[in-house]
From TrEMBL:
The lineage of its organism: Bacteria, Pseudomonadati, Bacteroidota, Sphingobacteriia, Sphingobacteriales. Keywords: Transferase. Gene3D superfamilies: 3.90.1200.10. One of its GO terms (molecular function) is transferase activity. It comes from the Bacteria. It comes from Sphingobacterium puteale. Residues 25-261 form the Aminoglycoside phosphotransferase domain. InterPro entries: Aminoglycoside_PTrfase, Kinase-like_dom_sf, Pseudomonas-type_ThrB. This is Aminoglycoside phosphotransferase family protein.
Amino acid sequence: MSDFNQLVVENAAKQFTLEGDIISVQPFGSGHINDTYRVITSINSGISHLLQRINHHVFPNVDGLMHNIEIVTKHLSKKVKVAEGKRVSDHVLTIIPTLEGKLYTKDSQGNYWRMFILIEGTKSYDIVETEVQAAEGGRAFGLFQKQLSDLDASRIVEVLPNFHNIEFRLDNLRKAIALDVCQRVEQIKDKLDFIFSREDRMKTILDLGNKGALPLRITHNDTKFNNVLLDVHDKMQCVIDLDTVMPGYVAYDFGDAIRTIINPVAEDEKDVSKIVLNLSLYKAYAEGYLEEANEFLTTLEKETLVDGAFLLPYMQGVRFLTDYIEGDHYYKTKYDDHNLVRTNTQLKLVEEMEKNEVFMRKVIFDCI
């Protein structure tokens, strides 16, 4: 959590349209990018609020970011089916405007703040433990994409340019190799051989998109499992953390979800022999996803889902290795070879997927 004093946080909370007086503002959650606080007021309406400081170092285009969230949440609000006794705000993030009617406020210290309605009675998991959970995660992101499939992607700002552009990531790697500022390239040639021998394959989705064969859709771009809120029965309720919502290809979202779901060990596990794919979770997620997404995806989009599953760990490995070569300036590290260890886990994940590609493609084929 941040080092902001209580007065700064409370003053920020007072800039938003809240009913009643503010009773408490307390740190909430375990996010690593934005600072989040729970706001409780004197009006007992059953609604609490989330105040967030937007990390404008990670997201410098705050206006574009909030523009995206407003467009997406308004569109989702029109699509959600609300059960009796529930509110739309139980299923879709709801922005609370400032006293001036704006989406966010900027304080005298240059910090940006926003507020949402807190979705109560939900839970999230950092690690997927059951096939039921995996399937619900798949349904949640499949439904999210389906509900946004008729929203024009050109209306959405690319707040993080080239985020999933593998050509851009490989170009950065080549630049890092050429400079070799830390004299680390010689010791990692086996990693570089692995990466560049698969370069053409990993450009499949990007090449098809550039040719117009894949539609550019509105995608989440951070589909780790804890960005799905589940109800008390472990049923999907809401997709959250919409900061990275941008135009993209559906296989990117599918691939990132698979990357984080089927790897049974931590992202920095030193013993890569422990990386054995949990294919039952893969199957459950894919079935749940396509249960919602099958009707709106094109045939080619469905065929590229497995390509996305290969691409996302590969691309994350490229990013970790680039940072390692450049001296570990982007990702926080705990020891000298931390980024190299992270690279190894991602590339091992790709290698294990290659061994199971026939099964992975058959699961998709059976679903469609």
